Amino acid sequence: xxxxxxxxxxxxxxxxxxxxxxxxxxxxxxxxxxxxxxxxxxxxxxxxxxxxxxxxxxxxxxxxxxxxxxxxxxxxxxxxxxxxxxxxxxxxxxxxxxxxxxxxxxxxxxxxxxxxxxxxxxxxxxxxxxxxxxxxxxxxxxxxxxxxxxxxxxxxxxxxxxxxxxxxxxxxxxxxxxxxxxxxxxxxxxxxxxxxxxxxxxxxxxxxxxxxxxxxxxxxxxxxxxxxxxxxxxxxxxxxxxxxxxxxxxxxxxxxxxxxxxxxxxxxxxxxxxxxxxxxxxxxxxxxxxxxxxxxxxxxxxxxxxxxxxxxxxxxxxxxxxxxxxxxxxxxxxxxxxxxxxxxxxxxxxxxxxxxxxxxxxxxxxxxxxxxxxxxxxxxxxxxxxxxxxxxxxxxxxxxxxxxxxxxxxxxxxxxxxxxxxxxxxxxxxxxxxxxxxxxxxxxxxxxxxxxxxxxxxxxxxxxxxxxxxxxxxxxxxxxxxxxxxxxxxxxxxxxxxxxx
Length: 501
Fold this sequence. Notes:
- The protein is mainly α.
- The protein is built from 22 helices and 7 strands.
- The chain has a 4-stranded antiparallel beta sheet.
- α7 packs parallel to α9, α13 runs antiparallel to α14 and α17 packs across α18.
- It starts with 12 loop residues before the first strand and ends in a 5-residue tail after the last helix.
């Protein structure tokens, strides 16, 4: 291996190719997440160099050496299904590792996503990713991963399961599934990653276990809200896993529920998503998760009465769910019952201080109400719970502006910081649009919403139910945007056709 003295500075070419100066650049070049590349360094002799005295984190590599390694036997060693699912290659980006937007610091989203009537949970990556291929075609136990170079597409090959699961393996798979469901219900980044591992291991033990695929789909759907997984990647994986679950057991309500969720919010296929929700509830009318998700679908279209009724059914089925209660609080606020909604969210916040949703929701609603001290406090808590450096930066900037010049200072600082992130490709257009509305910049807000729609930002679906965006409803450009959404016309009748008992 050449000595460090022969290396050139970052971006310069040598006989060893281009120098990559950190784990992130190396991972991007190989088309993998950093965790996978670090494991390859430890287990497979990946050609990584370290800066003397810089510690394990101070690393660099050269593309020519990486390319040679990719051709080696070490690079072709098979990976387990757990590794393939948990550490799958990142999808192709519209940019490259050099000069591309740093999607890992996408600033916190302020409008609810699929699990709430307004997509206000975190969205930390760009939707410009494409070409995702879910590693782990259904029913497999061992995967052989073919890594790509910078100019190659991500590929994954699967090997058939060696044998049908034994009774003992099925029992172990069930135990892992139940453990995964417990972790999934905690709804934290760490617990969701543990759930992902549990569900994946369940599939390793029993490749024909439909419920484990449902668990994977549900986990990917939440990882896009509670972690840095990009929407495009999460939804693609969720749809693949849900479709496999349906293939294995078409009578499984949870499989149709997972597919409904991803079709609605990921593909914007509202009619197919609607059909899948109806199929889900027809198969199992007493599923609180399906009721909760369907309530949010109704509310996001402005059908608050039906949405609240469906949410109440979910609450009856699962009275201890903080998630259902938090969504109800937000739904009440958006329906015009502002005091009732705020009170319920604060109640949930008191009973579960580490639960993300009430802090998120109260942060958003406080800004809409111009309760700036509450906005800053809830924003700080939200950023701390998510460990979101970008949101911390935005809130710190807004706080400094508020201390300097009150409301005007806060809005000017918030606008400047958000615009900085937006222009760098690290902030959703809907976030900045809301600030523009507060500042009276309606035409800029409309432009941002149109750009968000063209980029398939899932936040823009919430236009019909979000009070501050509804102030644009008389604008022709806003009306044209809503028309493009093309929500189902029969939603209300369809909901009423489903019997609870």
